[in-house]
Amino acid sequence: MAKKIKFKKNPTYEECFPRSEKKYKEVDFSSEYFETNHQKIKIPFRRISLKENTHHLDVYDSSGTQGINPNIGLPKIREEWISKRKKDKNPTQMYYAKNNIITPEMIFVSERENIDVEFVKSEIARGRAIIPSNKKHPELEPMIVGRNFAVKINANIGNSAVGSSIEEEVQKLQWATLWGADTVMDLSTGKNIRQTREWILRNSSVPIGTVPIYEALEKVNGKPEDLTWEIFRETLIDQAEQGVDYFTIHAGVLLRFIPKTSERMTGIVSRGGSIMAKWCLSHHEENFAYTHWDDICRICAKYDISFSIGDGLRPGSIYDANDEAQFDELKIQGELTKRAWEFNVQVMNEGPGHVPIHMIKENMEKQLDWCHEAPFYTLGPLTTDIAPGYDHITSAIGAANIGSFGCALLCYVTPKEHLGLPNRKDVKDGVIAYKIAAHAADLAKQHPNAKNWDDEISSARFEFRWEDQFNLSLDPVTAREFHDETLPHSNAKVAHFCSMCGPKFCSMKISEEIREMAKNKNQNEQVIMLEGMKEKAKEYNKMNTES
Known about the structure:
Elements: H1 13-16, E1 20-31, E2 36-50, E3 55-60, H2 79-83, H3 93-98, H4 104-113, H5 117-126, E4 129-130, E5 145-146, E6 152-157, H6 166-179, E7 183-186, H7 193-202, E8 208-210, H8 212-219, H9 229-242, E9 246-249, H10 271-283, H11 288-291, H12 293-303, E10 306-309, H13 324-342, E11 347-351, H14 360-370, E12 376-379, H15 391-405, E13 409-411, H16 424-444, H17 450-462, H18 466-471, H19 476-484, H20 507-521, H21 525-546
Parallel strand pairs: 6-7, 6-13, 7-8, 8-9, 9-10, 10-11, 11-12, 12-13
Antiparallel strand pairs: 1-2, 2-3, 4-5
């Protein structure tokens, strides 16, 4: 980050979330192992003020420190925590959890999730959850991925050979995390891959993932057959030193699986998977990421980099869903997961892809069985192939489904999927679609506290507290804009109707009147409701007759 860059500013936190305030809960951390006494840990959250400041709702916040110049970068909140680990050769969260040691990161996520830290520790030790947290990424605000925690979402950013710049990618990062991305993957394949990643890391409060084979391919001028283990290893170490928190490595694309994709309609659609497949066929040798897996594990253990074991043979169409090649690779992911755990490296497994709704559950069941309950991380899945331009919707449907079955991390899809490189607006649309999917999954799993948000907004809606309804929305700005398109005046913000039904036919207004009638007459609400409905029926029939 030597050169200075002039960045365009995104809308502010306050502009995006009116009546919200970023706040911090402060907790003490003491540890004999880390020789720490009463260290202060500040956990962020967003407080939404309601009912004219008489009430509030606190929600999870992944936006990071606000108002920071990207040329300076975010504060290094983990610097002191990390400095206490120099005596440990492989300072991974799994290592500490297995040895019954609580880390500041575990405290941080337990407070964020409102779950006991002992449970956090046990889930990490068992491999059912991970805290991606490279020791070289001190700016990170720790988060946890696991099916017994809130469902998380990932946003993909990154340049391509035909577009984008460092400024645009940092802006996308800030925009994605502002709206709720829990992790971000830098999938740059164009110019200045390393420099772009450095700027992203120094300005990211969330874990950053990469697909290292992309940069390795750049080093051999885009020719997969010229890749070597040495070039790949060098790339891994360089990215580790920069602070990448998790690597997607397509080590399950084995030579014997590649011919099975010849029967597919869309072949191998994973970029990383296709690169490794071409290398294997060119040399007629086994995938070097598979044969050097233990070496890769040693690198990741040294930095506490998590694996996101890639699904290089995922289906790229409904036609190819749940085929033999896909599931063969998933079984190998299970083998690689157990081997990584021997090095105390944290692991999640990547999944599809394009899968119709009735075939989604099978993916989750097989992953839990074959991959020993490691967290599952899926792209969608997209539930139909017929809606280019709307694949954030086709995939959010699948994401909500697989999340309800236990998927821990949902990789967003933007409206530009299959069409082009997403811009800032596309990033927001993808994030919001996936925040909806993740929350719907949490509701389905009956995750503690998930329903509170719904109850608050339902109450505001029934009581015609329009401002509260806007401000409780995932996207308050859009909610307000939609309302104001037809009822822009300030007095409409206290009206007991919207433009959908108007003042005469608002069901909630009628329900409110019925309750008031029951209260005044001291009668049963059901009796009054029947009488009220009869009255409204008369009004309706009279209006139709007059018209």
